């Protein structure tokens, strides 16, 4: 035959609870009430952590900050599927999932305050420091996933990226390597509709990011990223698959960055009120609250006590943050190499003197 | 040029872009967030509204893509002005810049000159996250085929950019982001040019030469003031162009003063100070009374904001270094 | 609905004349006998040019050389669809298409001899010098295609790459930009099964390169790259589409590199005799010869006169090559900038003296 | 170490890889064509046959991919030895090398040191197509967090590589491809190490110091011989490690001879010669009797083979430069 089909592929989208709280009972994941509640708790923690960070920034107590507001469902739905030992390679908007795997809030705040010590996660926490060069960390996630495969481990690696990250060459190379070597890696893409000011429609001509996995014959799914149960379910399927098959998987969460890109940004320059309102109605927390309330799992009293518990926790963490002794000037030379070359010794001496002079 | 107005560096660059786009219909502006948003530093503000999305192009988030397609656009008759959002993010574009932008003219024996300006905000002092503070001129200066320009004030910023936009070579245009809006200066409203390749003596002096560029020009002038109080008159040179270096102005000054310090934010090892020190001892060994001193960033990654002040060369370090050199 | 399909895509393959000369009459492109013959002539020129280059290299008369043997059908089938003004961004194995658009052979030989003057193509020839960093030129092709679009031109740009090139990040960025901006660009990928020693199956986990266009909602097709009529027809469809729609297109030609990667390579280290023989049977020239002979368009006499004509032409070009005056040492500084910075003036003076000393 | 055999640099590196893989089960070799093909220079020959595709990994054609995944593999417990086929092709990997490999230790305050060696054949003299001849050490030397090593002979090649493979910092291992097989030397069959950070005086002399590394060590020795005939005894220093530079050995020699030339293939502007000249005048100004001279590649893209000989610093240029320095 002159013309024959040599490839056919498709991509699915998963959404379980819609933004008015309607859902299809049989699609609801089989989770205990505790777990269902835990998802809510995680989201609320993230939201409150975030609000505190914005406040601290406004008061000059931390530096530039990138809000995760709106993306709590993505990071919570994933979190519940991770187990100890799984390895994260986050980008700069993953505070939520980082908290969820046990990184103390004061660490995260400290990084945004401009203190490298915030990036020093304790033994047993498998998470790289957030990576700033967009997309670059996806390759690290591939490499870790390859290591886990080569060492026959049960753990997986998760690489995070935004819609913008999918345009960088590293996204392509990360997926290609992962597929060729069967990396135990989940590519978790939060498509929050914007890369700073660039809307998704100008980032790529494709209707989805999930379809980009077809280039690598990699499994993928698009999920409503403001529907925590859908994210939970898709993540579970993906992670079960990766653990069992030792092959990579891509999840695209369709969500919305409800805040400025960072505190240095002014999103009214490029987004309309209407658009923002449209998405406000789809707030992942409100949406899930309706669901939980309808199920009798959440009520006002519970919500109130949860909120004040979290509030207290955050205040404690901020206190730890603000009681940290200042970092030492000599820290800037001491971690560059495993030993100090002669010129860093010279520079260190200078810094030691500075330190003394400054008290 | 009688008609002037007081504007900042950011405004001066913005004005240059407006005037150059008006003059040259093949000039296009491209990069991440340069359109509707006007750039994260608002340097391209208003261009999108005036010239539309065909000439002010918001690109996908891919630096190699920006520079690589700009090469094609240049070959196809345009003169692209690319913005790399922060100099630190030039890394993914280095293959395109070093292997192609710098080499097409030579490779094609002159047939395909690359007319392109790559704007890159550089330097510390704005308290950002990692990778938003570096001064990465070294690999660009080491690569034949690029010219590298770095203004320190509004007048030069506008005049140098307008020159760059008429040059038939690719130009890296480094913008000192810390002082984008730090001060205003009288700048002619009209179109004018400042010659590429010429340094400027911003303060005359007979005892020692301070050589620098970008944001540290002002720090160096401050240091010169302090030195005055100690009885030493420092001459301060603003390089303005980093390649080609204005060797004449440097040598003339050093031959007069006999002493020199170079100030820059990049790490010391193979920072531009190394080249300048090497050149001075090469061409004026018998005139120098003390070693050329390098007052620079340390040989470490640029620290996060809490330790940034210890990294950056400040007035005190410059004064101290100059005094050591004076008392050598 | 909880799960819905959000994307479906497929890729076709085109093959017209099989390697035993069988074909489906109605798929044969409507071409004059002249044109059908011209395709053969082009292929033969390429093959003979290539053989000469290999000989010259062996005799030390040119330097390292990369053979295009086996890929003549790809480059000839495309060539017949190009028109004056179309712009090429070749990689290092595109001597065939370069000859076909009118670049003198001595230019091409000169480059491989190590003489930059070989890259100076005359006015009216729209072709970049071959690009060595794999994949990087695809972005130039995108940019040129954007320029053609922005300037409302009728011409197109063609970017060339091998199977290996599709792994570089630049491939991804080139396709993404092209699709977002509607570049008038044809991505012409010759999948010759190897990137030096790496077989296609290890380059990517995908069964085709053509399917990678789905990531960008870009049209694409896979074609039997050893079937010149199939390449001709697919290229025609693609180029007609690009000219009319001002949108990019990707063609994957499945072919085989019949020679070593370059003259520095030894392909017996990584390829089996059986494999090589399998592909020898699919030689694009032999295959088309059978077809033309069966159509009465080619016979032994015609072939003979054609061969000796080409032979003569090549010898003349080699003579031009070898009569070129030596390049001047000062050439190494004279084309770097539009003017000479002071340090290059100093270096130029040194080189001028060297030149005099060496006679 | 009694037991030696006469082998080439390529063989010495190959032997080091075999011995290190034997010793360290987490050591993996990866890159383009390093497996079945044994590398385009055959430096990894035989490893694939012995250790299989799990430890000797042919990667897809993507340099950023190679280095980026190697970072993950290092974090995941392996020690990757990556090959960049020609140093020129490190450009696409520079984002990963400069922004990540060099910085993970510092960024994580020590938690994630990157144990990795990146092998890169460098330099001219093999008459290849474009982009196969450059010496691109400058951007790597300017970047804190990397160590850079460049042997010039089989003994050092093996010993330095074995040291590198035990170091907890990322190491760029530059291999002088022109002399991969140019000569053989006695090399111990056993496992041994050459200390990183130590230069070697390969010829003693009292009149002038020639400082170099890689393939130009031999050219410099030839030049020293010619100088001998003219009555001058040159001391030749093989740097062996480019970062950290062995400042002690350099200063000791220059303080003795009072004159120095630096020889390298990279262009002059901000080539390593600039750093060395700057350091010498900084630390030994009063000892030098003439400017430190830089004998280097010109400030142009590396030419194609027909003009390559004019670009590369050769014996004649070194002798001429040394004589100028001696007669200053
Ligand atoms: C290589 C690189 N280029 C540019 C930037 C500047 N920058 C920081 S975030 C960002 C947008 C990222 O968009 P996306 O990937 O969608 O993530 P989001 O911010 O939406 O979470 C840009 C352009 C960067 N950090 N790295
Ligand atoms: C960026 C880069 N990396 C490595 C090389 C070395 N190299 C030259 S050709 C080649 C293989 C190219 O394979 P492919 O793209 O399939 O083209 P083919 O040689 O088969 O025509 C390699 C690895 C290079 N030229 N550029
Ligand atoms: Mg986004
Ligand atoms: Mg190939």
Supply database-style keywords.
heterotetramer; A: 359 residues; alpha/beta; Rossmann fold; 6-stranded parallel beta sheet; two-stranded antiparallel sheet; globular; B: 328 residues; 2 domains; 7-stranded mixed beta sheet; 5-stranded mixed beta sheet; 12 helices; binds thiamine diphosphate
Structure, explained:
The complex is a heterotetramer, with 2 copies of chain A (359 residues) and 2 copies of chain B (328 residues). Chain A is of the alpha/beta class and 359 residues long. Chain A folds into 2 domains: 13-326, Thiamin diphosphate (ThDP)-binding fold, Pyr/PP domains (Rossmann fold, 3-Layer(aba) Sandwich); 328-359, no CATH class. In chain A, 45% of the residues lie in helices and 12% in strands. Chain A contains 13 helices and 8 strands. Chain A has helices at residues 33-58, 72-79, 95-100, 105-113, 137-150, 169-181, 200-203, 228-245, 273-280, 284-294, 300-323, 331-334, 342-357, and strands spanning 3-14, 87-89, 157-162, 185-191, 194-195, 198-199, 219-224, 249-254. In chain A, the strands form 2 sheets. A 6-stranded parallel beta sheet of chain A has the order 1-7-8-4-3-2, with helices on both faces. A two-stranded antiparallel ribbon of chain A has the order 5-6. In chain A, strand 3, helix 6 (169-181) and strand 4 form a beta-alpha-beta unit. In chain A, helix 1 (33-58) crosses helix 2 and helix 1 packs across helix 11 (300-323). The mean pLDDT of chain A is 97. In chain B, the strands form 3 sheets. In chain B, strands 3-2-4-5-7-6-12 form a 7-stranded mixed beta sheet, with helices on both faces. In chain B, strands 9-11-10-13-14 form a 5-stranded mixed beta sheet, sandwiched between helices. Chain B is built from 12 helices and 14 strands. In chain B, strand 10 (208-212), helix 8 and strand 11 form a beta-alpha-beta unit. Chain B is an alpha/beta fold and 328 residues long. Chain B has helices spanning 9-23, 47-51, 63-75, 94-101, 104-107, 137-141, 154-164, 216-229, 247-257, 272-284, 305-311, 315-326; strands spanning 4-7, 27-31, 56-58, 79-83, 117-122, 147-149, 171-176, 185-188, 200-203, 208-212, 234-238, 241-243, 260-267, 293-297. The longest helix of chain B is centred in the first third of the chain and has 15 residues, at 9-23. Chain B has 2 domains: 4-188, Thiamin diphosphate (ThDP)-binding fold, Pyr/PP domains (Rossmann fold), CATH 3.40.50.970; 200-326, Rossmann fold (3-Layer(aba) Sandwich), CATH 3.40.50.920. At the B-D interface, helix 4, helix 6 and helix 10 of B face helix 4, helix 6 and helix 10 of D. Strand 1 of chain A pairs antiparallel with strand 1 of chain C. The structure holds thiamine diphosphate (2 copies) and magnesium ion (2 copies). One thiamine diphosphate sits between chains C (93, 132-134, 161-165, 192, 194-196, 257, 261) and D (32, 61, 63, 85, 89, 92). One thiamine diphosphate sits between chains A (93, 132-134, 161-165, 192, 194-196, 257, 261) and B (32, 61, 63, 85, 89, 92).
């Amino acid at each position: 035959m002159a013309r024959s089909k040599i490839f056919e592929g498709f991509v699915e989208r998963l959404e379980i609870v819609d933004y008015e709280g309607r859902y299809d009972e049989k699609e609801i994941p089989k989770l205990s009430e505790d777990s269902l509640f835990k998802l809510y708790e995680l989201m609320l923690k993230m939201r409150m952590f975030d609000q505190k960070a914005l406040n601290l920034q406004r008061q000059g107590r931390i530096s530039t900050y990138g809000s995760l507001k709106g993306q709590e469902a993505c990071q919570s739905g994933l979190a519940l599927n991770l187990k100890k030992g799984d390895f994260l390679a986050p980008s700069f908007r993953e505070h939520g999932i980082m908290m969820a795997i046990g990184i103390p809030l004061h660490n995260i705040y400290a990084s945004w305050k401009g203190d490298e010590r915030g990036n020093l996660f304790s033994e047993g926490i498998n998470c790289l420091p957030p990576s700033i060069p967009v997309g670059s960390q996806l390759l690290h996630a591939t490499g870790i996933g390859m290591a886990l495969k080569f060492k026959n481990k049960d753990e997986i690696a998760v690489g995070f990226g935004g819609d913008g990250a999918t345009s960088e060459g590293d996204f392509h190379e990360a997926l290609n390597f992962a597929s060729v070597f069967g990396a135990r890696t989940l590519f978790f893409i939060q498509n929050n509709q914007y890369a700073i000011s660039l809307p998704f429609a100008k980032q790529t001509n494709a209707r989805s990011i999930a379809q980009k996995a077809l280039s690598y014959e990699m499994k993928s799914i698009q999920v409503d990223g403001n529907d925590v149960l859908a994210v939970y379910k898709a993540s579970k399927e993906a992670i079960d698959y990766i653990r069992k098959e030792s092959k990579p998987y891509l999840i695209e969460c369709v969500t919305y960055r409800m805040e400025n890109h960072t505190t240095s940004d002014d999103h009214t320059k490029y987004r309309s009120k209407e658009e923002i309102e449209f998405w406000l109605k789809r707030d992942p927390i409100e949406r899930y609250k309706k669901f939980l309330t309808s199920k009798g799992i959440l009520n006002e009293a519970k919500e109130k006590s949860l909120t004040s518990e979290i509030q207290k926790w955050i205040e404690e963490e901020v206190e730890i943050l603000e009681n940290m002794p200042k970092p030492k000037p000599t820290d800037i030379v001491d971690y560059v190499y495993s030993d100090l070359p002669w010129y860093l010794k010279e520079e260190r001496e200078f810094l030691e003197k500075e330190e003394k002079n400054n008290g | 040029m009688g008609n002037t107005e007081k504007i900042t560096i950011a405004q001066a660059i913005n004005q240059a872009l407006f005037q150059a786009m008006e003059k040259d219909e093949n000039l296009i502006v491209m990069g991440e967030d340069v359109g509707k948003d006007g750039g994260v530093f608002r340097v391209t503000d208003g261009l999108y509204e005036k010239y539309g999305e065909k000439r002010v192009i918001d690109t996908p988030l891919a630096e190699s893509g920006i520079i690589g397609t700009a090469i094609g656009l240049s070959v196809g008759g345009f003169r692209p002005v690319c913005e790399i959002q922060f100099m630190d993010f030039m890394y993914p574009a280095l293959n395109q810049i070093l292997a192609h932008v710098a080499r097409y003219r030579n490779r094609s024996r002159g047939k395909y000159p690359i007319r392109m300006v790559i704007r890159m905000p550089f330097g510390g002092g704005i308290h950002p996250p990692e990778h938003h503070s570096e001064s990465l001129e070294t690999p660009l200066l080491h690569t034949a085929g690029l010219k590298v320009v770095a203004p320190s004030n509004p007048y030069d910023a506008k005049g140098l950019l307008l020159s760059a936009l008429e040059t038939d070579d690719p130009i890296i245009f480094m913008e000192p982001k810390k002082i984008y809006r730090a001060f205003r200066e009288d700048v002619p409203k009209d179109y004018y040019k400042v010659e590429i390749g010429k340094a400027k003596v911003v303060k005359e002096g007979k005892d020692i030469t301070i050589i620098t560029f970008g944001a540290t020009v002002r720090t160096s002038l401050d240091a010169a003031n302090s030195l005055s109080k100690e009885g030493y008159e420092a001459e301060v040179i603003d390089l303005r162009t980093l390649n080609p270096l204005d060797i004449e102005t440097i040598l003339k000054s050093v031959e007069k003063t006999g002493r020199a310090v170079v100030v820059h934010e990049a790490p010391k090892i193979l920072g531009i100070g190394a080249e300048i020190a090497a050149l001075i001892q090469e061409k004026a060994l018998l005139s120098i009374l003390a070693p050329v001193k390098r007052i620079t960033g340390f040989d470490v990654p640029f620290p996060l904001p809490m330790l940034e002040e210890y990294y950056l060369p400040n007035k005190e370090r410059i004064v101290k270094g100059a005094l050591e050199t004076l008392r050598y």
